[in-house]
Records
---
Amino acid sequence: MPVKEEPKNLPWVEKYRPKSLEDLISHKDIISTIQRFVKEDKLPHLLFYGPPGTGKTSTILAVARQLYKPSEFNSMVLELNASDDRGIGIVREQILGFSSTRTIFKSKFKLVILDEADAMTNDAQNALRRIMEKYTENTRFCLICNYLTGIIPAIQSRCTRFRFGPLDMEQMSSRLKHVIQEENVECTEDGMKAVVRLAKGDMRRSLNVLQSTHVGYKLVNEDNVYTCTGNPLRSEIQSIIDWTLNESYTDAYKKISELKIRKGLALQDILTEVHLLVHRVDFPSNVRMMIVDKLAEIEFRLAAGTSEKIQLGAFVSAFQCARDPIVAEAE
């Protein structure tokens, strides 16, 4: 049988999605536990939860490929995503119909994968819990969600839960290097670090940022990555803190406003990056606590829909107020 060729224009996220459990780069303890379940033919109902892009869907699809031959896959696996209607009607009809029918492969059970399960209504989840219990002999369920609180306790108690945490920088870097080599991407060391930093443990996001920067600029360096994603450069954030601490209120406000307009930055983006830098700068503890508290207040007000210009004034004021304690501490 000829091997089906992948489309040339496939996004890297799908092109480099792990095909087997051995290809997964993180959560080795979870994967080894699931491999043991599969090997001993004792797979329970599963509940995967954690942030996006951490390998939840890839893991269960790799398990499904290991359990079933390509010819069996479509008849043995039912995958429903957030884009599908998964109200009580679908649970009572499609999922119940799939789960209740016996498989022609007597030794094998069927697999139902419910992605973004925390978006299901409580009525649908309550209907689902009975199906999970009644047809355990015939079907296994894998529920995937970002937030465990979105799943009712009755379903949680029927599943073996695994938390997929954000990937660490080393794991992401090794996978990105493989993609860079395969795609002949021209990437600098600072560009790689910028991609990993902005992804914040989300492998899917890192691949999307890498591909976007490569297509848009050819060279993947720090400046191009930050420009492509619309994030302020680290040098710009350092300049902002420098202005707020060393310039007058009026000059600092004016310079930050001009930078925002020129670069098309939102105050929220600046706050996020400044918050990270505040923890790296050697401020006295009381000053750092005061600044972080003020930044939190400003972020809360922005989320409530207040004027960005007024909150920029509050942002500059927070650092202006910190000047005297910094000087006093130095003396």
Note: The first helix runs from residue 12 to 15.
---
Amino acid sequence: METMNCPKCQSEYTYQDGALWVCPECAHEWVPGAELAQDDAVKDVNGNILVDGDDVVVVKDLKVKGSKQAIKQGTKVKSIRLVEDSGDGHNIDCKIDGFGAMKLKSEFVKKS
């Protein structure tokens, strides 16, 4: 069985979980070869790489154009879809209960 050292802490005690590799010492998760593309990857407020299907949590209250309500901090958003940034910074497509289909900026969410 092939093993890999953790790219973050260099631990040799890593294991494979589906397509991901996991380090039990520092809790780092990665996809082999993805380190090369990390500069282009969509990252959350903590620097974690986001992928299609991830669940995220909003980290601050967000005003919504055309609505009197705001998306409150702590709102969980399930199964996001990453999209090409169209120049306005919105790179996540999602559906939020009570608001419907929305676009969010990855800098205002954290991976849950």
Note: The chain has two domains: 1-39, 54-111.
---
Amino acid sequence: MSGSREIRTKINSVKNTQKITRAMELVAASKMRKARDRMEEARPYAHYALDIIHHVVRASMEYTHPYFQAREVKRVGMVIVSTDRGLCGGLNINLFKEVLKSIKHYQEQKVEVDLCLIGSKAESFFKRLRKVNIVSVANFHDGDTVSSITGAVSVMVKAFDENTIDNLMLFSNKFVNTIKQQPTKEQLLPILKPKEGAVKEDKSITGHWDYLYEPGAKRVLDVLLVRYIESQVYCGVVENLACEQAARMLAMKNATDNAGDIINSLKLQYNKARQAMITQELAEIVSGAAAV
């Protein structure tokens, strides 16, 4: 009897867990829809900002900004976007694997690495690593604006301005669809020339791109390029939020389904134990009757 009681207790415990995972799945689905709307609002701004920068790169500039000039890489900076909470499957660890590959690659070339971490999971993971320098940390929650990450990003941009770092990259997750989230790496600084076909050209325009800058090329580009970097990081952050909710929804759905499988297995064990107990009692009754 004690065995069947233990199994029944386990069934009730797993059912309670299943209710929690089911509720978390529904909450994640609701948050994912909001995060996707926010991501889709941010994507066009970041896309057109990138197009403008590509056109500027291809233009005959009266002033060559330092952000367009390649340097000998002696120290690199990495902006890493993670989640603040867990229970989202392998979303963070898959991204961290890509980051670790890049860190190992640079360290083998005797290049030092500075990190800007956005999200508590990245902070707790990378603070345990040796030979990497964490220079800034930021958190970004639902409802926050770009100003929440501006301070941490500006530290890295200032380091590039002061020639402390020679390269700045962004690591984040790209939202492909509800099931697939892909770790991505993007170089922010120095700004690379666009690949062939990366910028959609207007066929009615011939020759090369050029601009008239007011009040001056330096002042305009100083503001434009910083805004461009912030927009790319912000887009990566809000896209990572959508990835987080999608991954959590899928993880909680899998947990709910697995709980159902465990419950079915425990019910089978319970029925077998109950049948064995009934069979034993019948055998005892029959034996007693035969003895009389």
Note: The two ends are 27 Å apart (CA to CA).
